[in-house]
């Protein structure tokens, strides 16, 4: 791990890729061994994937960013007041546009002292850090390049009175075992004066979900399709894999009984793919399907019970009315 203070006064921290606390490679091996196979969510978010996702966020049918924006604009002041937090820890920060609403509310209450953004893709997060330093010169701004699962142990003992925020329904992108590991690690890194803000997509009408996640597959700029295939390109770049992108076809399925939106990729032919840096070879049958994204939709009571099992008490929750998007303030 390296730390430096850049000329812009943003403190930059890099969690080394071979850091034992970063379980990315183990998670990839485990996902590729499942049936059906699954590529962990983080591999969608290299620099190109992050840029594509920003385009997806702007699609008219894709409601989560707008619903979350309304929710935070309406309740960021209450979050700041109830938490009393002086530092925002931003898990999966991205461009941190929504996080700025929380920072503004903390500043309005005279609380804001520090911001720490954590993301696997450094570009948008660094730009956000420079933006925050320009707006709040007295605030300590830190950007951490790495997966939040590796960053949570690093955060332990580094301050108190913090608000740890996971926005953008990132929590819903974790599998149940991943959620359990995350909540256990989150609990261990939080002190008695810390709070957690969790934003999630609640269970809502089927057609609204299908329109939202089916958008961007066709047309001149099929960003959803490009985002899915970029996950394979990321594995080609990082592990020397030889996925032929033209031999795979993305799709999105909303499994209503399981409350899951699944980003699927189908092999259009029988083929073998090698990942030499992992010493792995994968045989795909024609029409075999694997997952690159699994997003869970929650019922509020179900979610509160899951959180309580790991020692988190819900102080307050808010629900955006039109699309049933939720935010929970925990301690």
Question: Could you list some keywords that capture this structure?
Answer:
three-stranded antiparallel sheet; alpha/beta; disordered N terminus; nine-stranded mixed sheet; 10 helices; Rossmann fold; 2 domains; single chain; 331 residues
Describe the structure.
The protein is α/β, with parallel strands linked by helices and 331 residues long. The protein has two domains: 236 residues, 3-Layer(aba) Sandwich (Rossmann fold); 70 residues, no CATH class. Helix content is 37%, strand content 25%. The strands form three sheets. It has a nine-stranded mixed beta sheet, sandwiched between helices. It has a three-stranded antiparallel beta sheet with strand order 8-9-12, with helices on one face. A two-stranded antiparallel ribbon has the order 10-11. Helix 2 packs antiparallel against helix 9 and helix 6 runs parallel beside helix 7. The protein is globular. 43% of the residues are buried. The N terminus is likely disordered.
List the helices and strands and how they pair.
Layout: E1 2-5, E2 11-14, H1 24-33, H2 47-57, H3 64-83, E3 87-91, H4 97-108, E4 114-119, H5 122-135, E5 140-145, H6 148-155, E6 162-166, H7 176-189, E7 195-201, H8 206-214, H9 223-239, E8 248-255, E9 260-267, E10 271-275, E11 280-284, E12 289-296, H10 300-308, E13 314-320, E14 325-330
Helix pairs in contact: 2-9, 3-4, 6-7
Shape: globular
Strand neighbour order, sheet with most strands:
1-2-5-4-3-6-7-14-13
Helical coverage, percent range: 25-40%
The Cα radius of gyration reads: 20 Å
Question: For the terminal residues, how far apart are their CA atoms?
Answer: 29 Å
Oligomer: single chain
Task: Determine the CATH topology of the largest domain.
Answer: Rossmann fold
* Strand composition percent: 25-35%
Assigned CATH class of the largest domain: Alpha Beta
Average pLDDT value? Answer: 91
Report the CATH architecture of the largest domain: 3-Layer(aba) Sandwich
- Which series of helices and strands comes N to C? EEHHHEHEHEHEHEHHEEEEEHEE
The low-confidence parts are 1-8, 18-22
Number of beta-strand segments: 14
Looking at CATH, the homologous superfamily of the largest domain is Vaccinia Virus protein VP39
- What structural class results from the helix and strand content? alpha/beta
How many domain units? 2
How many helices? The count is: 10
Main sheet: strands, sense, barrel: 9 strands, mixed
């Amino acid at each position: 791990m390296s730390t430096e203070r850049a000329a812009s006064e943003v403190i930059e921290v890099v969690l080394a890729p071979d850091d034992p606390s970063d379980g990315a490679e183990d998670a990839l091996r485990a996902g590729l061994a499942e049936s059906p196979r699954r590529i962990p969510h983080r591999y969608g978010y290299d620099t190109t994937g992050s840029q594509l996702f920003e385009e997806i966020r702007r699609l008219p049918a894709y409601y989560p960013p707008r619903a979350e924006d309304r929710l935070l604009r309406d309740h960021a002041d209450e979050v700041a007041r109830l938490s009393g937090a002086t530092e925002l820890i931003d898990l999966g920060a991205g461009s941190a546009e929504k996080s700025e609403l929380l920072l503004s509310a903390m500043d309005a209450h005279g609380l804001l002292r520090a911001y720490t953004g954590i993301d696997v893709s450094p570009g948008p997060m660094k730009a956000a850090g420079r933006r925050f330093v320009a707006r709040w010169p007295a605030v300590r701004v830190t950007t951490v390049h790495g997966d939040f699962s590796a960053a949570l142990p690093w955060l332990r003992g580094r301050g108190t009175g913090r608000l740890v925020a996971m926005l953008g329904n990132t929590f819903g992108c974790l599998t149940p075992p991943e959620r359990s590991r995350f909540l256990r690690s989150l609990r261990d890194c939080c002190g008695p004066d810390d709070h957690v803000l969790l934003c999630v997509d609640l269970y809502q009408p089927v057609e609204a979900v299908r329109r939202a996640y089916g958008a961007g597959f066709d047309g001149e700029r099929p960003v959803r399709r490009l985002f899915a295939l970029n996950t394979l390109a990321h594995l080609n770049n990082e592990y020397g894999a030889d996925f032929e992108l033209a031999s795979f076809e993305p799709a999105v399925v909303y499994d209503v009984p399981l409350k899951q939106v699944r980003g699927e990729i189908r092999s259009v032919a029988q083929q073998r793919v090698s990942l030499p840096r992992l010493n792995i070879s994968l045989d795909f049958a024609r029409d075999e399907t694997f997952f690159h994204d699994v997003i869970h939709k929650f019922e509020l009571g179900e979610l509160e019970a899951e959180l309580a099992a790991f020692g988190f008490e819900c102080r307050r929750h808010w629900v955006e009315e039109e699309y049933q998007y939720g935010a929970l303030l925990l301690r």
